[in-house]
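FAQ

Q: What does a record look like?
A: Structure on top, sequence underneath. For example:
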């Protein structure tokens, strides 16, 4: 389908306002979910849930786990490393600390196995049965850090009925000057091996070239000026690439009709270039009032004619910048000029050649510099002890390793790089019993979690960098931390029918949380651009007493709970209302050196648990003989000690601050006629984080701010039409998603915000009459929208912010053969 024919389709979509497409003509089929640890019809569960089938995920072009956020309003993404390390944000509940020592407040699960490390929320999606997105606290039955909600991926299981499989090959091209292509192979096969044993294997290989076209050494600072000189051989690689191989093998043992034993193993390995950030010039604004102590009060985009390094509000003076900490003017340093070499440029004279398009010039950018490796095993026993009682045991082990890099200024000035590494394992064991009687359903059990996490984070001063030239050697300003977590919990939930149409739900989880934490922060000699934190810390560098160390521990008893009423007002109408108490355990910061010193040292390392009281009411209605579903919910969140990441300079710390949030969500799914289906949805909320300081120890009063990565309004629409043609079925589809503007820095400075956007995707395809062959032509980001993903405020370090955008326009063709 050519562009001329696509425009009317996409225009129609953009007039509507949530989510999935389907490879079947009728979207309005019964959806079965396991949000309450048993199979239920989606319309009979009093929880705000968005669910997608594997076919829907494929049709939407979902390749990475976090891609589904675009199709579920109220769900967004946060994180760091230009999208290479991404987490879910749900209803404004988010956490964007870039050290992997943290756990996210929105949990992610794969086959009921908890993904304990932040990096693990981004993974390749293939051979998936469905995904369930549960909004609001889910701490009773999903007991790990599900304060804001959770995302649960369920993979396809082996079948005893028949042997089956598929091969799917895709080729695509990104529309940028980098001439980047993408090649993807996905395949799966499975079936019975014996009468009691079945197996399934699946793999995915993706080879994607870098779409961010790197022009380096163009715009390199002039020889002899600050930041001139290459950081090493191979500098200036294109970015945004991906080389991933992932596989999964699952065995299903059914020794008798009362027992299923499932065992699976999975592995994924990715190699990527340096994170695809770009630079935009920004300028820091300081308060000129002597009583304010020269406080940083705003960051703005640099005016085209501006030559000052920073602005002292209320004076005509130039301001200095703090090359490491960024927490106040210092009147000039040996590293940076007091004026910008180029009007409107950063502190080293760089202006991005095409703004938010995909040409850049970044010196610290290398091919195959970063990697992410994950593997794990999962065992699940389900045993029907009687007609009314089922015992389930889930054992899960995962191993995580990664090392990723970014260029701090995302520009040709040779300044600093940032790195993030982790070596961690997690083990979980859940034992639960569930059952039902004539008027009640219940589930209860025990859960244990161990996380052993070692993280490397820091700044790298490579060869020829301005910091290297000052100290005479390449080095890392490193943070080496370890955190071991043991968590034990008992949980239970009871649903009791008060009448034939009214039921009550009561849930409780009690948690014992123990943590042991060590960290060491200081300077180390660097052994190259691909290694970090090697050798011993240098004593008394850069300050007497360095390296700075801490050895801390904590033990807490926490609880979550749920009380809810469900009223089946009619055969096709459910109304529910309830109160949920969510909790996320306190933990410890592992900040960069500047943030550690600026936040007050060791006293700023621990932070408390966050507690969320959620008040929610909603309805689920079915009309037109099952051809239309309309679901809606309204909620109010009352947060105590919300864990918010306060970014200052080139680092930051998690602080506790109260917050509140209220909003509404609507989801309409309808079959408009023979072969024509549509889904529209909308989410709006208003969230406030209260009394947030500009930085630790700021002399200015704290302020109320918006949370990060939390657009107030999101809307989605999808239309799909199919008809008989060419001996099979043709289909055309289009989807559009709208996101309001949002901040990527908790201080809510003017320059630290991404604009609103509309993303449009479209496609046309054909399926053979026997459904064995499927051909698809796809267009993603049809209008080539610049949708912001992640950003960092570095105005006091380089006179710039680094920003990353969703991938540019992509077009491709796929061939799928099922057997």
């Amino acid at each position: 389908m050519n562009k001329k024919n696509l425009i009317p389709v996409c225009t129609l979509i953009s007039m509507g306002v949530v989510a999935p497409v389907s490879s079947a003509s009728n979207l309005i089929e019964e959806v079965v979910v396991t949000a309450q640890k048993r199979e239920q019809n989606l319309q009979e569960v009093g929880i705000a849930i968005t669910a997608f089938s594997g076919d829907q995920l494929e049709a939407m072009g979902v390749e990475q786990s976090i891609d589904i956020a675009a199709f579920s309003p109220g769900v967004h993404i946060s994180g760091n490393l230009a999208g290479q390390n991404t987490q879910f944000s749900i209803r404004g509940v988010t956490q964007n600390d870039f050290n992997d020592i943290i756990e996210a407040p929105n949990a992610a699960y794969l086959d009921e196995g908890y993904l304990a490390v932040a990096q693990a929320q981004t993974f390749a999606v293939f051979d998936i049965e469905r995904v369930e997105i549960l909004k609001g606290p889910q701490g009773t039955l999903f007991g790990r850090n599900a304060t804001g909600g959770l995302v649960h991926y369920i993979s396809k299981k082996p079948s005893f009925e028949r042997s089956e499989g598929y091969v799917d090959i895709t080729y695509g091209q990104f529309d940028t000057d980098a001439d980047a292509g993408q090649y993807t192979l996905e395949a799966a096969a499975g079936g019975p091996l014996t009468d009691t044993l079945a197996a399934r294997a699946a793999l995915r290989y993706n080879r994607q070239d870098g779409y961010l076209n790197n022009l380096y050494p163009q715009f390199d600072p002039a020889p002899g000026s600050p930041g001139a000189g290459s950081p090493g051989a191979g500098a200036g690689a294109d970015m945004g690439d991906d080389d991933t191989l992932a596989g999964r093998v699952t065995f299903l043992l059914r020794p008798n009709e009362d027992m299923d034993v499932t065992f699976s193993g999975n592995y994924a390995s990715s190699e990527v270039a340096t994170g695809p950030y770009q630079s935009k010039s920004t300028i820091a604004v300081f308060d000129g009032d002597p009583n304010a102590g020269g406080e940083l009060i705003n960051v703005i985009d640099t005016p085209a004619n501006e030559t000052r390094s920073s602005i002292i509000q209320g004076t005509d003076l130039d301001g200095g910048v703090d090359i490491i900490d960024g927490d106040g003017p210092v009147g000039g340093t040996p590293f940076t000029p007091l004026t910008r070499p180029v009007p409107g440029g950063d502190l080293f004279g760089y202006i991005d050649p095409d703004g938010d398009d995909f040409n850049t010039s970044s010196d610290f950018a290398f091919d195959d510099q970063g990697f992410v490796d994950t593997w794990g095993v999962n065992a699940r026993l389900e045993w029907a002890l009687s007609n009314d009682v089922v015992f389930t045991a889930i054992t899960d082990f995962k191993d995580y390793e990664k090392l990723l890099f970014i260029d701090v200024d995302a520009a040709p000035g040779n300044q600093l790089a940032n790195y993030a590494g982790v070596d961690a394992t997690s083990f979980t064991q859940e034992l639960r019993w569930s059952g039902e009687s004539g008027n009640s359903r219940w589930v209860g059990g025990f859960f244990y979690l161990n996380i052993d996490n070692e993280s490397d984070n820091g700044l790298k001063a490579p060869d020829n960098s301005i910091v290297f030239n000052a100290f005479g050697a390449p080095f890392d300003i490193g943070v080496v931390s370890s955190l071991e977590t043991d968590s034990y919990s008992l949980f239970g939930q009871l649903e009791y029918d008060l009448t034939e149409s009214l039921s009550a739900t009561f849930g409780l989880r009690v948690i014992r949380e123990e943590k042991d934490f060590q960290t060491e922060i200081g300077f180390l000699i660097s052994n190259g651009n691909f290694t970090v934190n090697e050798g011993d810390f240098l004593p008394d560098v850069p300050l007497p007493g360095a390296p700075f160390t801490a050895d801390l521990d904590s033990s807490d008893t926490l609880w979550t709970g749920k009380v809810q009423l469900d009223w089946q007002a009619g055969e096709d109408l459910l109304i529910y209302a309830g109160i949920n108490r969510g909790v996320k355990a306190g933990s410890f910061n592992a900040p960069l050196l500047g943030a550690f010193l600026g936040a007050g040292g060791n006293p700023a390392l621990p932070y408390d648990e966050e507690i969320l009281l959620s008040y929610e009411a909603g309805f689920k209605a079915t009309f037109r003989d099952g051809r239309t579903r309309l679901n809606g919910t309204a909620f109010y969140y009352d947060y105590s000690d919300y864990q918010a990441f306060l970014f200052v300079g080139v680092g930051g710390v998690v602080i506790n601050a109260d917050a509140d949030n209220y909003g509404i969500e609507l989801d309409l799914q309808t079959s408009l006629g023979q072969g024509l289906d549509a889904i529209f949805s909308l989410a709006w909320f208003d969230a406030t984080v209260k009394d947030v300081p500009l930085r630790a120890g700021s002399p200015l009063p704290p302020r109320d701010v918006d949370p990060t990565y939390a657009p107030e309004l999101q809307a989605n629409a999808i239309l799909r039409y199919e008809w008989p043609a060419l001996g099979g079925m043709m289909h055309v589809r289009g989807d559009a998603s709208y996101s309001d503007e949002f901040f990527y820095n908790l201080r809510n400075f003017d320059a630290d915000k991404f604009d609103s956007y509309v993303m449009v995707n479209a496609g046309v395809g054909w399926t053979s009459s026997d459904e064995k062959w499927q051909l698809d032509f796809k267009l993603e980001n049809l209008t080539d929208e610049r949708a912001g993903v992640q950003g960092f405020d570095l105005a006091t370090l380089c006179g710039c912010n680094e920003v990353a955008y969703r991938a540019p326009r992509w077009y491709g063709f796929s061939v799928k053969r099922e057997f």
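Q: Is there anything notable about this one?
A: The mean pLDDT is 90.
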